[in-house]
Known about the structure:
The structure holds 2 protein chains of 2 kinds.
Chain A: E1 7-16, E2 19-29, E3 34-38, H1 45-52, E4 60-65, E5 68-69, H2 75-81, E6 83-86, H3 98-105, H4 112-115, H5 122-135, H6 150-163, E7 168-172, H7 180-193, E8 198-202, H8 206-212, E9 216-220, E10 223-228, H9 230-235, H10 237-242
Helix pairs in contact in A: 3-6, 5-6, 7-8
Chain B: H1 3-17, H2 19-22, H3 25-50, H4 58-75, H5 85-89, H6 105-129, H7 134-154, H8 156-159, E1 165-166, H9 179-205, H10 207-223, H11 229-255, E2 257-258, H12 265-278, H13 283-303, H14 308-321, H15 326-335
Antiparallel strand pairs in B: 1-2
The complex binds adenosine-5'-triphosphate (ATP) and magnesium ion.
Amino acid sequence: MTNGPLLQVEHLTVSFDDFKAIDDLSLTLEPQSVRVLIGPNGAGKSTLLDAIIGRVRPSAGRIVLRGTDITRMPAHRIVRAGICRKFQTPGLLDSLTVYENLALADARGRGWRAALRTRPTRDQQVRTEQILQLTGLTAERHRPAGRLAHGQKQWLEIGMVVASDAELLLLDEPAAGMSHGEREQTADLVQRLTTRHSVLVIDHDMAFVERLRAPVSVLHMGRLLKEGTLQEVRQDPQVRAVYLGRADELECDCA
Amino acid sequence: MPRREFLVHLLVLGVLALGPWWLSPYNLSLLGRFLAMSILALGLTVVWGWGGFLSLGQGVFFGLGGYALAMNLKLAGLAPGDLPDFMVWSGLDHLPWWWAPFRHPVVALAAVVLVPAAVAGLFAWLVFHRRVRGVYFALLTQAFALALATLLISQQAYTGGFNGLTDYGPLFGVHLTDASAQTTLYAVTLGALCACYGLATWLSRSHFGRLLVAIRDGENRVRCLGYDTVPYKVAAFALAGAFAGVAGALFAAQVGVISPAMVGVVPSIEMLIWVAVGGRESLAGAVLGCLLVNFGKDWVSSAMPSVWLFVMGGLFIVVVTVLPQGIGGLLARRSAPGPAADAAPMTPEPAGP
Ligand SMILES: Nc1ncnc2c1ncn2[C@@H]1O[C@H](COP(=O)(O)OP(=O)(O)OP(=O)(O)O)[C@@H](O)[C@H]1O
Ligand SMILES: [Mg+2]
């Protein structure tokens, strides 16, 4: 089993009424891999992640994680099976502190024994400290999550996904709304995650994508348009057509 | 608990404990029953204040606890083979089988906690399991309260009907109407309140307490972190049910009656108002709100009996519009060091070591 693919999305269709947000899409992720998903607004990127984590139910197709069909599993069991997702708009628990948010996300907090503890175990503390460091939020640990700056919120979200100990992390626009410098930091952060996790990243920003140096899949109208390196994808006439007049989005002003 | 807060709690406890020495018997009896009711209010803080699910049916669990004890008190002191008075009036000739276990005071006392907890837990599980939330949950709890009150009234022969259960025999051989028994009941009530307060405080610091708040703020988010939220919500609701049951039993023992009038929709809404006035997130606020509203109710109804419902409605509007955090929120704003953190510069940390 360890040799098979990590995640297989097979002929997936997600419909909202008559509209197919995902249309017969297939995608395979290998273990220990990084994949970038790009595509114009409304291409279905977030919807694909919704389907993978059990937030929307596909009307056809299968999602298989390491040989187990997770298509109809409840959301919390999918996380336990090994997939955790960062949402496009940060969904932090605003009234809890940074530390509490991370502690909550910690996989070791699940179950009744953990629920009745008033302080985290040594193990949990060490792990949470690591993630605070990783995300650069050590100084903000006692601040309510709702009061963080935008970029910090995104990092905290990434930290929470990491804390879940899932093998596969799905990051929906982790660098959205960030300054240039913050984006570079975020790209480095994501890069560092890849040593322990497989990562699927959605983003619009080509400089960010370039920095990740990972294979790219282009989604358009719920279908997979092209897979390849960023260079290949960029030069592809079909992809350029999809981005229509906004083909400059595919250029990278930093290069 | 910070030292100062702890001392304030200790001081208040001292003043309450000395109640029998500084209060008139009438006021002591009022305080005793209001303290009993405030145990229920603590449960509402847990489920509504922290967990965010509004129960409009807490009277159900109050009633179950009250009836469980009252059934024992009705049977106590009867000769073997004799029936409680209202059963005789209704023409029953033998004790219904489900009444029999309540002959034993220990069974009845256990039922005071366990029956409401089990019923609350089962109800919550059925409802939450189907992903019913928010307003729909509140409406179901209200329907439950209405149903139980109606059932109690209609089953006159088994429940005492509209008048409920009153005119009690002794508990462990002691007549509850004796003056000394009333003082003992007051002490027991205060003890129970302290125990429940302690339990709830501990809960608020546990991971479970934090999870409840997280579920209130973003249940889907919590689910997407790998938690099944249903068991936590069920456990919280069962706990609140147990608290309400204890409150109901202590109330029935002190007042000498439990009836459908304390179970239905209106009393259940009144219970919410105690907590809303006190501040739904604060345990101290729940107790304070319960005492304030109920002493206010006693005072208003004796001065102008017909006015109380209007005062209650007005109170609710004021709390919802002007003071959404209740008195507890007001106090917290005073004592807590303001949101100074907002003024701190937000220097972006480098991501990573
Ligand atoms: N719950 C829903 N009900 C109806 N339509 C939806 C729903 N969710 C998404 N859609 C539609 O599905 C399409 C794909 O949306 P999705 O959010 O997946 O796009 P995206 O690729 O993530 O875009 P963006 O880059 O703007 O985030 C859009 O046309 C959107 O309007
Ligand atoms: Mg999206």
